[in-house]
Amino acid sequence: MHSALIYTDAYVNYQYSDSHPLKPYRLRLTHALMQSYGLLQLPQSCVRETVPAAQAELELFHTPEYLQVLQAAGAGKRTIPYDRYGLGPGDNPIFPGMYTWSQLCAGGALQATRLVASREVDVAFHVAGGLHHGRPDHASGFCYVNDLAIAITELVQQGYRVAYIDVDVHHGDGVQAAFYDTDRVLTISLHESGRFLFPGTGFVEEIGVGQGQGYAVNLPFPPGTDDALFSEGFAAIVPPLVEAYKPDVVVTQLVVDTFHDDPLAHGELTTAGFVAVLQHLKTLAPRWIATGGGGYNLTNVARAWTLAWGMMNDVEIPDALPEGVLPLLRQAGYEGRTLRDPASPTSQARHNRLRVEVHAAIAYLEWHVFPIHGIH
Ligand SMILES: [Zn+2]
Fold first, then answer.
1. How remote is the CA of residue 254 from the centroid of ligand 1, in Å?
2. Known active-site residue 133
3. Judging by DSSP bridges, how do beta strands 185-192 and 123-126 pair with one another?
4. How far is the CA of 26 from the centre of ligand 1 (A)?
5. 23: alpha, beta or left? (left if phi > 0; alpha if psi -120 to 50)
6. How far is the CA of 295 from the centre of ligand 1 (A)?
7. Catalytic member of 126, 133, 170, 373
8. Residue ranges for the chain with pLDDT beneath 70
9. Which among 14, 131, 161, 246 could bridge 101 via Cys, Cβ 3.0 to 4.6 Å?
10. How far are the Cα atoms of 55, 107, 124, 214 from residue 114, in angstroms, in the given order?
């Protein structure tokens, strides 16, 4: 078997709140779009129903105390000082079943990990994962548990070398912090600069400590970054480092809140930039655990991750959306009839101005991090 998609319809039973930007419905929409293209019945590919993680598995990264609090919150217990754990009105609201939701998010990551580690598949895609802000003892940035840190911890315990690549518009702070002092995990995050965006970290100078020095890598981009600039930054940093590091497994977070019409950030990417990055990732990752993550324009999520799943399976997907799925996409706000975004005109002057900033960051990494990996 070549690939596995980890999915359950049960995701939509959980709602952060009516007004919260993270909508589990986008996962069903993604599944529906993949299905409409016939991508869920491919030879050499399977769909696995998500299995919730056990508490002991969540404890690979999270404290028992925090997990108890999460469980109590999800069950409606009101007497705990939840704000101490990052829970409450705002980013991480308390909602019924939030513990089970978290078990599903973490469980899917472990399933993907085990399928890839055992060589049952070469690539596993866990669309409900990618919760890269979660901390051991508190929730952060819509992430109650950190499925990535849980999965990578299991891989490290089994002796694997792991490269983690994060293309979310927000810095992957939770995963970076989890492995900041070790060389067993290379974390690379490409994101909008912390000067402008949550969580306010991920500066180029953050390169790890002790044994981990040179094994945390950050490439911040200015607001307004487009396809060409993002691909250029990615190509300059990620392939040389991953090739030098020689990981056993590559874990990626494939969020699309970098897109031009995402409501939470200021990126200018389109599906073309996303596909360009995916093409690189594919060659770097013979054993690949892919996760979703955020993405607050629901139909961007569905279209981009359908493209990603097609690429993982070497299927060229026609651009015309199947008629049957159009009403669902319309309902979710998409007026187009194509899977891919139309080419967006870029302003050369703006591109050149932003490019200077990105090149300064690349130069910093080439000077301070590349030599640690023997790249000169
Ligand atoms: Zn994000």
1. 10
2. yes
3. unpaired
4. 15
5. beta
6. 7
7. 133
8. none
9. 14
10. 17, 11, 9, 28
